[in-house]
Amino acid sequence: MTPLDNARPTHPEADTARARVSLEIRQELIDNMKVLRAFAISLTRNTSRADDLVQETVLKAWANIHRFEPGTNMRAWLFTILRNSFYSERRKARREVADQDDVLSGQIACKPEHDGHAQLRDFRRAFNMLPAEQREVIVLIGVLQHSYEDAAKMCGVQIGTIKSRLNRGRARLADLMQLDSEEALELTDGATAAVMSANRGTAL
Description:
mainly alpha; 2 domains; Arc Repressor Mutant, subunit A; 69% helix; single chain; 204 residues; DNA-binding; Rna Polymerase Sigma Factor, Chain: A; transcription
């Protein structure tokens, strides 16, 4: 069972739209749940909250399916709903978490001489230290291969802002992992992809 099974559109136009929704569109929603979950984890850094956020996103999407234009980018639409929900909740909470960069960065090994699993663990910790705005851009562009233009639309900012966040995020990861500049781009995107893959887990 997926969140769609219990969802009910709330907009007056949605009842008619729901009747018109093809099985292909419904399946497309379901097919995007794994990557949606990985994106949610990259923002929340908490699997339980990420699962709640994905369910909330899918329910909102299904309730507003009449707004979706078949043939357009379903994933971008879902990501926009998810990130808007995340940042809306964060603004309401207004809870500031103490910056632990100095403590955690000291615990991340420089050029670790251990196995790949340990390196991935170190990278995950470094990645989680980045601001959410930088994490999401690294995921959207470095891992999911969205264009700067698409990422800017999803995040509701200018392309220059996206490029700046991406560069700062990659630079910070390289600094935390003590990588050479030549290694930084390939390794940070590759490691982020590995973390995303691990985060996908099973479909909701």
